[in-house]
Amino acid sequence: MNLLTPDLGLLFWMLIAFGTVFFVLAKFGFPVIVKMVEERKAFIDRALASAKEANARLTGITEESEKILRDAHEGELRILKEANEIRLGIITEAKEQAKVEAVKLISEARLAIRKEREAALRDIRNEVAVLSLGIAEKVLRRNLSDRLDQRELVEALISETEAN
Fold first, then answer.
1. Which residues have CB under 8 Å from 1's CB, separation 6+?
2. Which end of the chain has the lower number of beta carbons within 10 A, N or C?
3. pLDDT tens profile 121-137
4. Residues 149 and 143: beta-carbon distance below 8 Å
């Protein structure tokens, strides 16, 4: 017996054993394996479809969130701009009111100063007039104690008045 050449009987029984195993596998094993492979393929296809759908949804959600963020940022900028305009309006209005109030206070102060000045001048004039009359009375009493001096004074005043 040669190791490299098998006998005809061995070959026959190996062929029968191989055929039996192949028949059993073809009848019972391969359909189960093929069915499991097909189920696995269907599961993978469904998972890929779900992943594509989830990816599409995620893209939509990302775009929507970016849009919401842009809208929020635009709203924030708009609110800040409006607040700045309101602030500037309030500042302008306050400045105008302050100017009006300052002009009013200055005019009232000028009026009060003018009235006080006029009153002070009146008081000074009255005092000067009273003092002048008092001094004049004293001077006239001392200088015009006799009739001759009185007559000379009257004539001097009349000649002065005629000259003017």
1. 7
2. C
3. 999 888 888 877 777 77
4. yes
